[in-house]
Each structure stands twice: as C-alpha cells, then as structure tokens.
C-alpha cells in the first residue's frame, strides 16, 4: 500500500482549526502503517474505536477490489444482476482498467454512472459559481463525490455503511481527489443535519436508496413509501436545515404529483422544483430534482455546451398542476 493511500479515521478536521468536530473523517494523509501505530490515540473517542478497527481490517485485507477478469460475487454466489452491472463497469468508473476501483455488492446497483455524475457536478458549478462546499448524503462508493471534488474545494460525504466509505476513500485516491473528501459515518436525520449546518455548506445533494432494481416494476414510484430511509417530505425537511440549494437524484418513474405536492408543503405554495430527465445512450437513467432559486432560475445556453436540452412533452394542464419545470437532458449531446 503506497504513501498515497489516504485514510484518516480520527473524528476531527484539523487539530488547529476544527478539532471539536470529531464526527468527521478526512480522506487523506494517513496510511495503513500509521493507522496501526496510532490505534491508542483513537480509543478516547469511544464508539469510534470499533469503527477504527473495522477500517484497519478492510485496509489489511484490501477488500472489494474490482476484478476486471471476473464478475463480483455475493454471499449467495455470483448474481446475474451483479454480472450485468459488472459488464458496464467502465460507465461507472472510467479508470477501472488503469486504477484500482472498489465496490461492494450493494454499490454495483447504486453508484451513479461517471458521465452523469460529471454532468451534475458541472451543472451545479454553473448554477452556483461561487460555491465551495457541498454535502453528498448517501455517498456510497463515491461516484458523485469524486466528480464534485473536481469543482468544489471541499466535499462532505455521509454514509451509514463503513464499507461504502472505505470504497469512497479508495476510489477517491485513484482519481486523485481524496484530499478534498471529508467522510462522516452515520445515519441521516435532523440531528446530523444540524451538525452539518455549522459548516456553511453551499449545496446539499442526495441519491437516496431506491430499494434496488425492483423499483422499475412500479408504474409510479411512491416517493413516500418506497424511498429510503424515509419519504420525500422528511428528506426535504432535513435537507433544508443544511442549505436552500437542494438536489435529489430520483427514479425515472417517480410520482410527479407527489413531487409537486411535497414541494409546496415544504417550501411554500409558490415554490418550484426543476426536474431534469437524464438520458445516456438513448436510455432514461433517472431524474434530477433541484430546489432553490439558483437552479430554478438558471438558463443554460446549450448551443455552446455538449448537452442537448429539449422541452419535456407535457400539456399545459399538467404544467399548471405540477407547477414544476421539466427539462430533458441527453448527456450524449
């Protein structure tokens, strides 16, 4: 494991500036050999001791490395669905052939394809040109976080699964951005949101679990009952604590009536949500939902960009009823 391996498990930012925030983890500067020697200094953090030991074990075993020669397997053996995603691994991480990439079985279903993540990062940067900090809730394997790190000074990544954070750190190292990634292991909720509110975050993004590939079987995806860990209303209420600039990546078959009603309930009767339908190679991948005037008022000159913008085909009654802005983006241009 070379000196570039970046994992800091102590729960603080820097000893000189933000040492009281011991619930954060930085994705740089400490190596496996340092972690072994430093175990005593982390014992005083109580619950983080177990987290620290688990992370050291992951480092020693070098787990979840993607093998380009054979598909991944789960405890139940190689799964057909995993093989399907493994064959498309280059769309998830373009460097998978040249650099080590790490994925758990769950991450194969949930990582945002790299081109979509890059498009989103550039779109946010265009809408918020002065933004420096972004929070990625449910960060998973770092697909979005890594691209955010290319345009933001600091990216905060939250996930309740230590294995996912481990993969994020390792993948961030392969893309050379681990020094910009700040990790937090924990569950999202009002208490966590209030902690992040103190960090002056410019934008908050979330790609919450959709419930696995089975979501596509629903004619209209229920944003209150099916979305995890809780419904859209509570998700937006807690996101709003951190920042007014909010983005969610949701299933392509999401219930638009629910989206419209919840937008008004959380932000007021005049509030709007911009919906971007994202296509790649002719296939609809999902929809980006954006709240905040910087997003809803933003108009892009697509003649000079590689993305093709088309108006989503909605009749006037639908537009009036939903009071949202619908745009279809084809990232293939």
TrEMBL record:
Biased composition (Acidic residues): 304-315
Organism superkingdom: Eukaryota
Family: Belongs to the methyltransferase superfamily. Trimethylguanosine synthase family.
Organism: Candida glabrata (Yeast)
InterPro entries: RNA_cap_Gua-N2-MeTrfase, SAM-dependent_MTases_sf
Single Gene Ontology MF annotation: RNA cap trimethylguanosine synthase activity
Catalytic reaction equation(s): a 5'-end (N(2),N(7)-dimethyl 5'-triphosphoguanosine)-ribonucleoside in snoRNA + S-adenosyl-L-methionine = a 5'-end (N(2),N(2),N(7)-trimethyl 5'-triphosphoguanosine)-ribonucleoside in snoRNA + S-adenosyl-L-homocysteine + H(+); a 5'-end (N(2),N(7)-dimethyl 5'-triphosphoguanosine)-ribonucleoside in snRNA + S-adenosyl-L-methionine = a 5'-end (N(2),N(2),N(7)-trimethyl 5'-triphosphoguanosine)-ribonucleoside in snRNA + S-adenosyl-L-homocysteine + H(+); a 5'-end (N(7)-methyl 5'-triphosphoguanosine)-ribonucleoside in snoRNA + S-adenosyl-L-methionine = a 5'-end (N(2),N(7)-dimethyl 5'-triphosphoguanosine)-ribonucleoside in snoRNA + S-adenosyl-L-homocysteine + H(+); a 5'-end (N(7)-methyl 5'-triphosphoguanosine)-ribonucleoside in snRNA + S-adenosyl-L-methionine = a 5'-end (N(2),N(7)-dimethyl 5'-triphosphoguanosine)-ribonucleoside in snRNA + S-adenosyl-L-homocysteine + H(+)
Region Disordered, residue ranges: 301-321
Gene Ontology BP terms: meiotic cell cycle; nucleologenesis; regulation of telomere maintenance via telomerase; tRNA processing
Entries under Pfam families matching the protein: Methyltransf_15
PANTHER family: S-ADENOSYLMETHIONINE-DEPENDENT METHYLTRANSFERASE RELATED, TRIMETHYLGUANOSINE SYNTHASE
Protein name (database record): Trimethylguanosine synthase
GO-annotated cellular components: nucleolus
């Amino acid at each position: 494991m070379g000196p570039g391996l970046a994992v800091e498990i102590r729960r603080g930012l820097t000893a000189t500036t933000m040492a009281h925030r011991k619930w954060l983890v930085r994705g740089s500067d400490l190596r496996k050999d340092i972690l072994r020697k430093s175990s005593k200094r982390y014992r005083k953090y109580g619950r983080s001791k177990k987290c620290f030991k688990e992370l050291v074990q992951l480092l020693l075993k070098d787990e979840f490395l993607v093998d380009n020669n054979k598909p991944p397997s789960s405890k139940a053996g190689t799964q057909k669905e995993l093989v399907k995603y493994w064959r498309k691994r280059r769309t998830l991480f373009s460097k998978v052939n040249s650099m080590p990439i790490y994925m758990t079985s769950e991450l194969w279903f949930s990582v945002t394809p790299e081109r979509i993540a890059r498009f989103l990062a550039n779109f946010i940067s265009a809408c918020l040109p002065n933004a420096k900090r972004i929070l990625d809730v449910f960060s998973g394997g770092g697909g979005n976080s890594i691209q955010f790190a290319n345009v933001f000074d600091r990216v905060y990544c939250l996930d309740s699964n230590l294995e996912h954070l481990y993969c994020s750190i390792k993948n961030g190292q392969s893309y050379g951005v681990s020094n910009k990634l700040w990790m937090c292991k924990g569950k999202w909720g009002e208490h966590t949101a209030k902690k992040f509110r103190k960090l002056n975050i410019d934008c908050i993004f979330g790609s919450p679990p959709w419930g696995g590939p089975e979501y596509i079987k629903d004619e209209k995806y229920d944003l209150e009952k099916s979305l995890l860990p809780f419904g859209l209303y509570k998700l937006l209420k807690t996101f709003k604590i951190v920042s007014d600039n909010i983005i969610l990546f949701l299933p392509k078959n999401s219930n638009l009536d629910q989206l419209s009603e919840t937008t008004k309930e959380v932000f007021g009767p005049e509030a709007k949500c911009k919906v971007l339908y994202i296509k790649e190679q002719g296939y609809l991948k999902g929809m980006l939902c954006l709240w905040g005037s910087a997003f809803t008022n933003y108009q892009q000159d697509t003649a000079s960009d590689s993305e093709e913008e088309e108006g989503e085909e909605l009749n006037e009654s639908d537009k009036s009823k939903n009071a949202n802005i619908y745009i279809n983006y084809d990232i293939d241009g």
